[in-house]
Design brief:
The protein has 110 residues and is α+β, with helices and mostly antiparallel strands. The chain is 34% helix and 25% strand. The protein is built from 4 helices and 5 strands, in the order E-E-H-E-H-H-E-H-E.
């Protein structure tokens, strides 16, 4: 079975949504990621969250801060060495329904 790639279009007008956007992987972003990892629910205050992905490599640095082994300054210095990859996290179904439009589905070949 070959993988399927679904293609969506995002409506650029997000003004009617509650959006939290992180332009950089800064102290505010680190604190938000750590709060979520602790089971916090502040993400639920938003329809859409835009910001850096805390993938395995990036999370190694965040985890050092999370565990109290690094201070914020050390963490932010380490994060500068990683490429920033953004993600859009749709928190509410209404945001998905209103802002994403399905365009096509393609079978991926190798």
């Amino acid at each position: 079975m070959r993988p399927i790639l679904n293609i969506y279009e995002l409506d650029d007008d997000l003004s009617d949504l509650s959006v939290l956007e992180f332009l950089e992987n800064d102290a505010r972003w680190v604190d938000f990621v750590c709060q979520c990892r602790r089971g916090g629910s502040s993400f639920a205050d938003y329809d859409l969250i835009i910001g850096g992905v805390a993938d395995d490599k990036v999370y190694e640095a965040v985890n050092m801060y999370f565990r109290g082994l690094w201070d914020m300054d050390t963490t932010l210095k380490a994060l500068r060495f990683y490429d920033k990859n953004d993600q859009y996290c749709f928190v509410t179904q209404a945001a998905i329904d209103d802002k994403l439009a399905f365009l096509d589905s393609l079978e991926v070949t190798r």
